[in-house]
Write a structure and sequence with these properties.
With 128 residues, the protein is mainly α. The chain is built from 2 helices and no strands. The longest helix has 41 residues. The termini are far apart.
């Protein structure tokens, strides 16, 4: 007993035959109704696209190969190290900061001490 083909296979075959028949019918109808000049233009455009397609495929494959090579080189190279970052925070300006209120006068630790107005710099790597 024969096994029946799956529905997907039969549907795919039907759509291929239907598409080929539709293209053939449209080609016959269009070529009968077009003038000689319009038909020559249509054939020229079709041939030009057919000739250009392999070139585009070749260029796309070369571009993908080059992209893969660049990615391999980038992954093989060690990650660039950045130099250490030194952040120098400025001292607070006189009169700037948390101010004492009358409610905090009895508690000495309630407000922070004011920052000194004079800045000190330490130069690393120099002789004292």
């Amino acid at each position: 007993m024969e096994e029946r083909e799956s529905l997907g296979t039969r549907l795919k075959r039907f759509l291929i035959w239907f598409g080929a028949l539709s293209v053939l019918t449209a080609g016959v109808v269009v070529t009968q109704r077009l003038s000689d000049d319009a038909l020559a233009l249509l054939v020229g455009l079709s041939v030009g696209v057919a000739v250009m397609a392999p070139s585009l495929l070749l260029l796309w494959m070369l571009w993908r190969r080059q992209e893969t090579r660049l990615q391999e080189r980038a992954s093989a190279m060690p990650a660039p190290t950045s130099p250490p970052v030194v952040v120098i925070a400025p001292s607070m300006l006189p009169g700037y900061g948390q101010q004492r209120s009358l409610a905090w006068d009895n508690d000495a630790n309630a407000a922070w001490a004011m920052a000194p107005a004079e800045r000190k710099f330490t130069i690393v790597g120099s002789e004292p």
